[in-house]
Design brief:
alpha/beta, CBS-domain
Length: 383
Amino acid sequence: MNWSLRLATVRGITLKVHITFAFIVFLAAANWAALGPAGMAFGVGLVLLLFACVTLHEFGHALAAQYFGIPVKEIVLLPIGGIAFLGRATRRPFEELVIAAAGPAVNVVIVALLAPVVWLAGDGRVDLMPALLRPDGATPSLLEAVQWLVGANIGLVLFNMIPAFPLDGGRILRGLLGLLTDWSRATRWATATGQLLAMGMGGWGLLSGQLMLVLLSALIFFSASSTAAEERGYTVLSSYRVGDACNRHALVLSEHERVSTVIGYILTSYQPDFAVLRGADLLGVVRRAQVVQSLALQSGDPVVSSIMRPVPRVEAPHSLADVRQAMTESGAPVAAVFDRTLFIGLVSLEDIAEAEMVLAYTRRDEPPVPGVRPTSRFSAAEA
């Protein structure tokens, strides 16, 4: 996603297009090249209109997510479609259903607006052709463009409603299952269904020579596998409190100590983050990257209080799963753990990833720890 160009920002959501999008524009022009420059321009116009519909589809997902308070980072247009990157995933079935259905609903509205034009101005014909192929005998015209867009949007709805996670249909399936069972089991069933359907689609694509279908099937399969692994990790981490995972015996600094002291600690220990304290009160945190930056930009030996940074605060009873979600959502690599008003240690995303790996083996068959809160958010106050 690093090779993406920013197009616009709408409601705080950045719209980007990946540079490989140029390939599909070229392919669209090539499919209409037999009609000369006018035909090539028409083909390019069609694919741009199609991706305008794809963009509206993704904004349907994004605005629904924002309605439920879920932040949306960006939307990226790719040759195979669009992706809306949410700040966090929901674990509520109703929210999953609404967010997943909002995208196809936009395409249904587009079809409802354009279909009367096709019916009144044409013969009612709609070709459900792959988006970039030129229907037999088609010539550039406004009616042809409307017919083509109606067929393409119907195709988008039908394809996205396949119950193969992470397609919209698969997410709707997970939402429906989530109404009947717990979220982990719903995710497991939905992702397994997605993998099974992806293998079937991939096999059909190989037999019929449709390489794009094979590629999409592979993306669906591995994305479903990734989601299943994330859910297993969440289940493991939800059984452990962050207060039991932070390092209570880490080296700490006073506000008057020098950067040279931190350098000595870095060279003789594996600790990357150092709390700066005034008595028992946390003032901030010094990370290894800040020490390296200080060495590069500052002369002398400054005090650590001049380079420390504030960090978010989490409460010790919260689960590692919810703390990781909150840290990921806010972009914080490290957080301070408090037992009410008492600072007890730091936790980083690297610490939580390591804990997940260890707990996956050591706590595989143990029941969840009672008393772990189901949700967590950072305190508004920072250290």
